[in-house]
Write a structure and sequence with these properties.
Length: 537
C-alpha cells in the first residue's frame, strides 16, 4: 500500500535529502504536524529554551555537517523570537530554513489572536519567503533549499498553515540542477595575468565566500606558487592553517591589528580580493585601496553593490577555477624584497602576546595552551571576541565560529551546544562576555538535556567592556554599561553541570584539564578587572 504523504512530509523529506539530520525550536500547537513530519523523515527535533538560541544551535551543527539549519517556531511570539538569529543567518551567510506555523488563510480573515504577517516580518532578513501549499509542496521545498544554499547562502522562510501541513501531497521529484563552476576568459583574464606577472608587492584578502566554496586547497596552491601574503576575515580564519608563513592572521574589527595590516595593504601594487565579503569588516576597511594607483582583482559570487571597496577587474566566477586560470602560464617573480610582510607578522605577534599573567589575554592564551589543537571554538560578541580572533590560531576552516557580520550577542553558548552535539568526538569551547552569557544562560539546561559537554568560558568583569571603552574614548559619563557581579559557576552547577571560578592561569589550567574529562558541561568564570582590554584591541 502506498503511503499517503502530507505536505509537511514532502517538505521534511526534501530537507532530509539535502543532509539535514537535526532541527531546533520550540513547538506550539500550530507546528505539531511539522515536528511529526520531521521526526518521521529522520530529522531529530531538539527542544531549545528560546527560538533565537535554537537557530544558533542549528548553526553550530551546520558548521559540522554543512547542511542547512532548520529553525522551527510557532506563530506570533514564537516566530518573532527568532528574528535575531534569522537576521544573523542573512548577514553571516548561513543557509537556514525558517519554518513557522500559521493559521489558515480563511481563518485569519476573522481571527486575530497572535496573528500577524510572518512573511512581512521576515522579508527584510531572508532571501525568500513562501507560504506552503499542498499542491506545490514539492516545488516550494526544492526552491527553498536551492535559494538557501546558492551563493551567497542565507535564510529562507516558509509559513506553514495548520491544515495545509496535514493535507495530502505528492513529491514529483522536482530538483533543480546545480550550476556548474565558471572561470574567467578573454581580455579580462589576460589583463589579470599581466597584473599578476608584473606584481612585486601582491597581497590577498580572503573572505567567507572562499570558505563556502571549500577553496582552501586551491588557495594554498596559488598563494604558495606566487608567494603572496594573505589576510583573512574572521570567519575565514583557518582556511589555510594560520601557522603558514604567508598568513598574516584575521582582520575586521581590531584597530590594533589594523595599525599594522592596513599600511601593508596600501603599499601593495596588487590586491587580490578572493571571496572577500566585506560585510564582516569595520568602517576602517572601507576603501582601503585605491584603484587609481593599485591593481585590484575581485573574485566573488555576486556583483559589488556594497561599495566598501572597488576593483579594476571584477570576476563573478568560482574561486578554484579562477585561480587556476589566473595562474596558468604565469611564472612567479620576486615579491616583497623589502621584507614588509615578515615585519608585519612580527609586529602582530608582539601586539598580541601570549605571555600575559592574567586579564583577558591571559585567559585566551591559557585556553589555547591547554586545550587540544583540534578544539572547536565559538565566540560571542564583545571586546573579548576581538582579542580572541587575533590570538586564537586556527589550523582548519571553522575552527573558530562567531557572529562577525551581524555581531549579535548571545550566540556563543548555543553554537557550542550545537557544535558538540554534531561533533561529540571533538573538544568544544565557547567564549562569552558575562552580559552575553546572561542573555542565554537558560540554555545550559538544554546542554544537560542533550548530554553534551562543552566548556563555557565567561569573561567576568561585570561590564559591557567594549561599550564602556567606547564611552570613555568619547569622554562621556559612565552610564548603562556596568552591572552587578554574579556567580556564573553556581549557574553551571544549578543546571546540572560543573562550575568553577578562576582568578589566575594556574586555576584556569586546572579547571580546563578537569573539564576535558568531565561527563557534563563546565562553566568557567574567569574573573578579570574592568578596563583590562585597554590598549589590547
Amino acid at each position: 500500500m502506498t503511503e499517503t504523504l502530507r505536505a509537511a512530509d514532502v517538505l521534511a523529506r526534501r530537507l532530509h535529502e539535502v543532509g539535514c539530520r537535526h532541527a531546533f525550536g520550540m513547538p506550539g500547537g500550530e507546528v505539531l504536524t511539522l515536528v511529526d513530519a520531521l521526526t518521521k523523515a529522520g530529522i531529530a527535533f531538539h527542544l531549545a529554551k528560546h527560538e533565537n538560541c535554537a537557530g544558533f544551535m542549528g548553526e553550530g551543527v551546520h558548521h559540522a555537517d554543512g547542511a542547512p539549519v532548520i529553525l522551527v517556531a510557532t506563530l506570533g511570539p514564537g516566530a518573532l523570537n527568532g528574528v535575531n538569529v534569522v537576521a544573523n543567518a542573512h548577514q553571516d551567510r548561513v543557509p537556514m530554513l525558517v519554518l513557522t506555523g500559521c493559521v489558515d488563510a480563511a481563518e485569519e480573515q476573522s481571527y486575530t489572536h497572535q496573528v500577524l504577517d510572518h512573511r512581512a516580518v521576515f522579508a527584510p532578513v531572508t532571501k525568500a519567503s513562501f507560504r506552503l501549499d499542498a499542491e506545490a509542496a514539492d516545488l516550494i521545498a526544492d526552491k527553498a533549499v536551492a535559494i538557501a544554499t546558492e551563493p551567497r547562502n542565507g535564510p529562507v522562510h516558509i509559513d506553514v498553515p495548520i491544515s495545509v501541513a496535514d493535507t495530502p501531497a505528492r513529491d514529483r521529484g522536482i530538483r533543480r540542477a546545480p550550476a556548474s563552476a565558471s572561470a574567467p576568459s578573454g581580455e579580462a583574464l589576460a589583463q589579470a595575468r599581466s597584473w599578476l606577472s608584473a606584481s612585486a608587492r601582491p597581497v590577498a584578502m580572503i573572505g567567507l565566500d572562499a570558505l563556502q566554496e571549500n577553496a582552501g586547497p586551491a588557495l594554498r596552491a596559488f598563494l604558495e606558487k606566487h608567494r603572496i601574503p594573505f589576510v583573512t576575515s574572521y570567519k575565514a580564519k583557518g582556511i589555510i592553517p594560520e601557522d603558514h608563513p604567508l598568513c598574516l592572521g584575521g582582520a575586521g574589527l581590531s584597530p590594533l591589528a589594523d595599525k599594522h595590516l592596513l599600511p601593508l595593504v596600501r603599499e601593495a601594487d596588487l590586491v587580490l580580493s578572493i571571496g572577500y565579503d566585506p560585510i564582516e569588516m569595520r568602517p576602517g576597511w572601507r576603501n582601503v585601496w585605491d584603484v587609481e594607483t593599485q591593481n585590484v582583482i575581485d573574485i566573488a559570487p555576486e556583483a559589488n553593490t556594497h561599495y566598501m571597496h572597488q576593483a579594476g577587474l571584477n570576476f563573478l566566477t568560482a574561486i578554484a577555477p579562477t585561480l587556476a586560470a589566473l595562474s596558468d602560464g604565469t611564472d612567479p617573480g620576486p615579491v616583497w624584497s623589502n621584507g614588509k610582510p615578515e615585519a608585519v607578522k612580527r609586529a602582530l605577534s608582539e601586539a598580541f602576546p601570549q605571555d600575559n599573567d592574567w586579564g583577558p589575554a591571559g585567559v585566551i592564551a591559557e585556553c589555547r595552551a591547554v586545550l587540544p589543537p583540534e578544539t572547536l571554538a565559538t565566540a560571542d560578541s564583545g571586546a573579548h571576541r576581538i582579542l580572541l580572533s587575533q590570538m586564537w590560531e586556527c589550523s582548519e576552516p571553522r575552527g573558530l565560529v562567531q557572529s562577525s557580520a551581524l555581531c549579535t550577542m548571545g550566540c556563543a553558548v548555543p553554537m557550542a551546544i550545537g557544535r558538540k552535539l554534531a561533533r561529540p568526538d571533538r573538544p568544544v569551547v565557547s567564549f562569552s562576555g558575562d552580559a552575553g552569557f546572561l542573555m542565554v544562560a537558560g540554555e545550559l539546561s538544554t546542554a544537560a538535556e542533550l548530554g553534551v559537554a562543552p566548556v563555557f568560558v565567561v569573561f567576568a568583569d561585570a561590564s559591557l567592556a567594549l561599550i564602556e571603552l567606547k564611552q570613555r574614548q568619547r569622554q562621556l559619563a559612565n552610564g548603562g554599561v556596568d552591572f552587578a557581579e554574579h556567580d556564573f559557576a553556581a549557574m553551571g552547577r544549578a543546571f546540572g553541570g560543573n562550575g568553577v571560578t578562576v582568578t589566575n592561569r594556574t586555576e584556569l589550567r586546572a579547571a580546563l584539564q578537569h573539564a576535558l574529562t568531565a561527563d557534563t558541561f563546565t562553566v568557567i568564570s574567569a574573573v578579570i578587572d574592568r578596563g583590562d582590554y585597554d590598549g589590547r584591541i
